[in-house]
Amino acid sequence: MKSQRLDFVTDVPTPTTFPRDPHDTDGTRPEVVSYGDDRRARGLRTLAEITGESGERVVDRLRDIAPDFADWIIDFSYGDVMARPGLDRRSRQLATIAALTALGNAQPQLRVHIVGALNVGCRPQEVIEVILQMAVFAGFPAAINALTVAREVFEQATG
Amino acid sequence: MKSQRLDFVTDVPTPTTFPRDPHDTDGTRPEVVSYGDDRRARGLRTLAEITGESGERVVDRLRDIAPDFADWIIDFSYGDVMARPGLDRRSRQLATIAALTALGNAQPQLRVHIVGALNVGCRPQEVIEVILQMAVFAGFPAAINALTVAREVFEQATG
Amino acid sequence: MKSQRLDFVTDVPTPTTFPRDPHDTDGTRPEVVSYGDDRRARGLRTLAEITGESGERVVDRLRDIAPDFADWIIDFSYGDVMARPGLDRRSRQLATIAALTALGNAQPQLRVHIVGALNVGCRPQEVIEVILQMAVFAGFPAAINALTVAREVFEQATG
Amino acid sequence: MKSQRLDFVTDVPTPTTFPRDPHDTDGTRPEVVSYGDDRRARGLRTLAEITGESGERVVDRLRDIAPDFADWIIDFSYGDVMARPGLDRRSRQLATIAALTALGNAQPQLRVHIVGALNVGCRPQEVIEVILQMAVFAGFPAAINALTVAREVFEQATG
Amino acid sequence: MKSQRLDFVTDVPTPTTFPRDPHDTDGTRPEVVSYGDDRRARGLRTLAEITGESGERVVDRLRDIAPDFADWIIDFSYGDVMARPGLDRRSRQLATIAALTALGNAQPQLRVHIVGALNVGCRPQEVIEVILQMAVFAGFPAAINALTVAREVFEQATG
Amino acid sequence: MKSQRLDFVTDVPTPTTFPRDPHDTDGTRPEVVSYGDDRRARGLRTLAEITGESGERVVDRLRDIAPDFADWIIDFSYGDVMARPGLDRRSRQLATIAALTALGNAQPQLRVHIVGALNVGCRPQEVIEVILQMAVFAGFPAAINALTVAREVFEQATG
Prior knowledge:
- 6 copies of one chain form a homohexamer.
- Chain A is an all-alpha fold.
- Chain A has helices at about 35-60, 65-80, 90-105, 105-120, 125-140, 140-159.
- The radius of gyration of chain A is 18 Å and the shape is globular.
- Chains A and F meet through helix 2, helix 3, helix 5 and helix 6 of A and helix 2, helix 3, helix 5 and helix 6 of F.
């Protein structure tokens, strides 16, 4: 079920640059770590680094009703996706804020990821710039409602 | 990072009912199979059973530009999620058709999952019923556009 | 304004089974009966069976500002659509939960239809499975927010 | 299941102002016409007046796969909703164009309703004004894509 | 970067019909007023006429976190877009209500623009008619949630 | 209509740095310069730098049907918003790609902004990373459809 790579995708992270199962010497699938434990450890570390307590609280609250879903957030969302090389954490958080602002129906997640943006070194003004830009692509109401969330996060952060 | 289960969630699949690493005797995380190979095998089997060639073609086409993403579809979407017990395949496909019809911006995926619905034993009329119902929840345009996709799938299936 | 039926849609009710005027006494396909009163009675019965008090409260609250709209919910949404044969009630409720979870902007309706799913015999875990599956098709935020609604419904149901 | 009307809703059409079964003198349900034939006739007339051939073609095409759905468009969408008094046809079409432009995933319906707007007397520039305004509320991409549809309709109308 | 006008767009406001810098006699850019002060003045006037205090409060609240964004609302949204000739204010507000109802994720803005609709002379029933119509194009949940907002606005307006 | 600045937003340009009238010669914050000509020039330059021919073609095509809208794209979207300091161009393009991928109904604009991302120095893999990340926040279908657009852009760029 393999097909040729596009030549122009020259900068797909090579196996040597990606943490993986030490016993795996096959270079064709650099990011798929064969052991769940690795995904779990990488996911927990990434979740903590990006969202800090706020994200862990969300995951923890989900354990009563959907424990496997809580694990997916750790293993897949943070272990497989957010921990990937090839894009810096600041860009990943700003891209997430752009998407959640545009979707406009995920305020709780927007709050967590604005906190996450500050945690990985984004300046408040960079967060604001991304939200303002969404007025062009998703309309003014989406941007206004995201600014309301951002203000609350900033006020708590400085309260 | 554990919290108590809700008592009413009495029917969360117990470890004994879920295929998992035979060496894993800990019942706290029934669905997380520790070996990537298991997720891969379960994902490939589930992908084939539900989508047949159409889904495999989608995954295969993604390998050139995003090989890891292609693996996520197999390992996560089909290995972790769609393969779960607790809901029959027919209900899963009808729920997917409902969501893609309501979202209205995922025609290619709607096509794949209508094929998938027929593959797992849904009758054409059941697919149509779900789409018609979406007129109430997502509006008539969403339902009309999904019916257009369904017609094409049915005509090919019978062509 | 008729066009030929698609041959493959073998289970689409044929015109001969469509009671289309008051002299037609065939009761097998009630949903296109010509009398508004029938739609009303069928709608009220279906609304009560699926949503119980919660749905009736919603309809009742709408009477002050939009009495005709309240009637449409009864006559069209429940009398014409949700009462249709061809798909069982459990599948209809799970499809509705899938759509409302994916849309992500209809929490009050999601609440009513999770209650409705339990009313027609869906198990809490089946509702959860549909919501978890939406993480694949509509993203994790949509699923997380729907799980929050589901927890509240389940806690009230068991409280 | 009745609740008091809001006093300020003084202009809800009263039974005497709404076309209904001449034999029905009960004022409690002004818009629910008791005879399907009345909804059907009113719906067909309204569909023809607003969308002309383009809408009838859409309905006709749906008859093969979902004949009841085709009837709902006539009876509910046009017979119950679009035929209502209390808002002029031009405003209804412009509101529909606004919504379909903002949703951004219903191009075929947008086309039909731009044609409909011209049919009921809207000037091309009024259609354009509504679409331009959506740049503020739904973003520039939504407006750009709707303008593309509008241009095609206008060119055909003048071709 | 000019291209020919479509002949059928005969009613694009010509320079002479559009308020602009009196010193500007060049007809090539009818709507672009060259002086920011004109956009500002026109925007503030239009914002006040349409939204009254409610809109000014929104803009004012935005000044602490995004002062330029607050200016964009005045200069672009109201000075450039909402102040345009070619469509009456009532139609503009009803189109905005249609879009915000259909989007379903902008309740605060829907509130402001329902107030705005009443301010520019729309009757409560016209607002309700537009919202009811959205049940056809965006589904019943979107319409129900918008009716809830409308009721609150109407009750305050008459309280 | 001013309100106090939030103290924590330390990098929001202070009023003294806002050139607000023609006599202000401080060039550090061009985006609120009072002269339309400046917005026009800045917008055209930014549009050309980011989107190159692809964006200019879009704007040019809009001139026949909505010349003022074409100007808004130049003056507002690029002159006021995209030209702002406070966020680098690469981050702005990646945020735009995230939003358009998540919205899922703006393929033509996604194409233009993937081209734009490459024009301002983003690597193809960075574009892919943002799109893959959207699988978490907007679902796999949104990511799959955006990857299809990205592949076409990359193939043309390297073809």
